[in-house]
Structures are given as C-alpha cells and as structure tokens.
Design brief:
Helix content: 40-55%
Shape: globular
Number of helices: 11
Distance between the termini: 27 Å
Strand content: 5-15%
Number of strands: 9
Length: 247
C-alpha cells in the first residue's frame, strides 16, 4: 500500500503487482489507515485510488486471508461505533471522507477490488478493464459493502445477475449499467483532471454535496427534504457571515 500527496491530491495505490493486487488483511488495514491519515489533512481536495502493475485488484487473496483464521475472525467482528468490520471499513472509509474519491481502474477489478472501486464517488476505467462480482465462485456473497453500493448504482435485477452468476463483464457493459462513470485510456490522468476541476469549487459545498447524497439517496422525499435543509443551512450561514473558503 502506497500513500503520497501532490498539491491538493492524495494518491492511494494498491502495491502488490505480482498478485494483481490481491487484497490481504494487511492491505485492508492499510486502506483504513490511509483514509484516516487523509481525513486529518486540510489540504487534500480529492483522492485517487489506483493499482500498481497489470490490474486494479483481483479481489481478496483467499489463500493469504485464510492462512490465519484467527485474523479473519477478529477482523470480521464489527466495531459498534462504526457499524463496519475491518473488511467493510476498508471500503466504506472512503465514503466517510468529506472529499471526492476517484477510482482509476485498469485490468482486473474483481470481488473485493470491485467493492473498493464501487465505494469511490467516481470510477474511470480503461476500455479493456474487466469486472466481476466474484464471491459466489467461492461459495460466498459480497460482504465488503458491495450490497450497499451496488444497490445505489444499478438495478436489483442486474445486481443479482452479476452476483449470482459471478460472470466477468467488460468495461463497455460496466459503463452501460452504471458500474463505471466513464471510460478513458488513461484513467489516472482523467481522475487528475476531475480532481483539478473539483478543486476550483468550494470545498465546503463539495463536502456538503457528498454528505447530502450519502444521507438521502434512498430515503423518502420527506427525509430527503430535511437532509437538504440541514446540509444547506451551514453553507448559507457561512456565506452570510462572509467567511473565506477553506476546509
């Protein structure tokens, strides 16, 4: 796992290229730690998630993960103050950040790797990238927040189809169904362009927009209107009081 900062961007890179960035328990811990480090910095305006080597991530490395059953059991228990276990928090930590998170996907994006990408706010992918909700091949179901993110991005029928079949789909299909935001030959470059555009906007408004949709996307209209008001009021007061921008 590599974390670096460049101007207003944070780069989080999965760095196990010889295994197509198959996720280990240590890598999941590194993802959570990276998100918490970024959350403490006021200069970061966007995060770019990517993978070193031939793939974004081939998913959880089952052999490596199951080599230590005690670690699996310990990390499977949810933290009551967050409502997620270690596997889920490795993905959902990016939803908790107030800044936009952009996944730059290439090669394989399978299983837990796909759930990580889906937890980003935006996904740019190369035209030859491959996607799979792979868990049922191992007799499992998505359990790293994939049920929550899939339900927001695509219809239940397509979510069930991808999950039950564990089929591998191409980037064109992923873009058509909503798994991918846009296709790009160089997804990191496209992610950087978007990060730069977002950096020209009010950081308070960008953070508020992320929070607004996170809290209201599948809520009732009445609940959504209440969240809109609660999110907008601090922004109006900030402008009325003439506060300068800055996170």
């Amino acid at each position: 796992m590599a974390l670096r900062f460049d101007d207003h961007r944070a780069y989080v890179t999965l760095d196990r290229p010889d295994k197509h960035n198959g996720l280990t328990v240590d890598m999941l811990s590194g993802l959570v730690a990276s998100a918490r480090t970024i959350a403490r910095r006021s200069d970061v305006r966007a995060v770019i998630l990517s993978g070193n080597g031939p793939s974004f991530s081939s998913g959880l490395d089952i052999a490596a993960a199951t080599s230590n059953p005690l670690a699996i059991a310990r990390n499977f228990v949810p933290r009551p103050w967050r409502g997620t276990n270690a596997f889920q928090e490795a993905c959902w930590a990016w939803r908790r950040l107030p800044v936009p998170v952009i996944a730059a996907v290439h090669g394989r994006c399978y299983g837990g790797g796909l759930q990580l990408a889906l937890a980003a706010d935006f996904r740019f992918a190369t035209p030859d990238a491959e996607f799979s909700v792979m868990e049922t091949r191992h007799g499992l179901v998505p359990d790293m927040t994939g049920a929550a993110t899939l339900s927001r991005l695509i219809g239940i029928d397509k979510a069930l189809l991808l999950t039950m079949t564990a089929d591998t789909v191409d980037a064109a299909y992923a873009a058509k169904t909503g798994l991918v935001t846009e296709l790009a030959p160089d997804p990191v470059a496209e992610a950087e362009k978007l990060a730069d555009r977002l950096a020209t906007r009010s950081p308070h408004a960008v953070a508020a927009a992320k929070r607004l949709f996170e809290k209201s996307w599948q809520a009732s209209a009445r609940r959504t209107f209440a969240v809109e008001r609660a999110t907008q009021l601090p922004l109006i007061l900030r402008k009325a009081l003439g506060r300068t921008e800055g996170r």
